[in-house]
């Protein structure tokens, strides 16, 4: 067996800093990522844990300008609908926030979960089938941290219609959309979440019960 690494105090402090500086980026520079960067990050994402070693994540890299424009159109429609759910000052705040970097981000991709995958032979998901989706989310988070460690920002665009995105990207019907993501070098950096800086919400301590 390979000996376990001895992670130093310095490494652990760096890891905490990495997690605190991981932000949902909406403002990107148009500078393209170096060749091979996305592929390397996707390979790191596949190191994430998955139920039964099912590795259900499916990545769809969106290079087509026509498909990107269609995704952007879906976002704009869904964003307008979301705005109508608010009123007064909350609506005014929502309308002035930038909630996606679809126009600027040089790299865009979607992550799907394949709930029908035979890999893993169903281990661990008979009673909790949603663990397939959770596994794909773990891959997203792993990629997010790996990207941030290289100074690359990532943004999760959730104001979308999953059925429309699946149609735009022409994905298999058994795949479930987890999220659409923008990737690139951020044009600004801050360790405080944008929504907190804008006054939309405040980060709170975790809810913990002891039984």
What does this structure look like?
The protein contains seven helices and four strands; from the N terminus they run H-H-E-H-H-E-H-E-H-E-H. Helix 2 packs across helix 5 and helix 3 packs antiparallel against helix 6. It has 211 residues and is of the alpha+beta class. The protein has a four-stranded antiparallel sheet with strand order 1-2-4-3, sandwiched between helices.
In short:
The protein is 38% helix and 13% strand. It has 211 residues and is an alpha+beta fold.
The total count of helices amounts to 7
Given helix and strand content, the structural type is alpha+beta
Mean pLDDT: 96
Strand adjacency order, main sheet: 1-2-4-3
> Termini distance?
38 Å
Return Rg in Å. Answer: 19 Å
**Percent in helix:** 25-40%
Described by strand count, sense and barrel closure, the largest sheet is: 4 strands, antiparallel
Number of strands: 4
Uncertain stretches of 5 or more adjacent residues: none
Instruction: Work out the strand percent.
Output: 5-15%
What is the general shape? globular
> From N to C, what is the helix and strand string?
HHEHHEHEHEH
Blueprint (SSEs and pairs):
Elements: H1 9-21, H2 37-45, E1 57-61, H3 65-83, H4 88-96, E2 107-114, H5 131-149, E3 153-157, H6 162-169, E4 175-184, H7 194-197
Antiparallel strand pairs: 1-2, 2-4, 3-4
Helix pairs in contact: 2-5, 3-6
Throw out a few tags for this protein:
single chain; 211 residues; 7 helices; four-stranded antiparallel sheet; alpha+beta
């Amino acid at each position: 067996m390979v000996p376990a690494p001895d992670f130093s105090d310095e490494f652990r402090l760096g890891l905490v800093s990495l997690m605190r500086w991981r932000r949902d980026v909406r403002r990107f520079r148009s500078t393209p990522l170096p060749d091979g960067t996305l592929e390397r990050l996707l390979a790191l994402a596949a190191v994430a844990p998955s139920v039964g070693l099912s590795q259900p994540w499916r990545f769809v890299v969106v290079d087509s300008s026509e498909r990107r424009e269609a995704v952007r159109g879906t976002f704009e429609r869904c964003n307008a609908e979301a705005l109508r759910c608010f009123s007064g000052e909350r609506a005014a705040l929502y309308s002035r926030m930038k909630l996606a970097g679809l126009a600027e981000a040089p790299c865009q991709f979607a992550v799907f979960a394949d709930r029908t995958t035979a890999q893993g032979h169903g281990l661990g998901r008979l009673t909790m089938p949603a663990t397939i989706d959770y596994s794909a989310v773990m891959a997203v988070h792993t990629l997010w941290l790996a990207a941030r460690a290289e100074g690359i920002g990532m943004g999760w665009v959730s104001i979308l219609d999953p059925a429309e995105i699946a149609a735009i990207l022409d994905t298999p019907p058994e795949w479930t959309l987890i999220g659409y993501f923008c990737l690139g070098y951020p044009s600004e950096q801050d360790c405080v979440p944008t929504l907190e800086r804008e006054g939309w919400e405040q980060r709170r301590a975790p809810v913990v019960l002891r039984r």
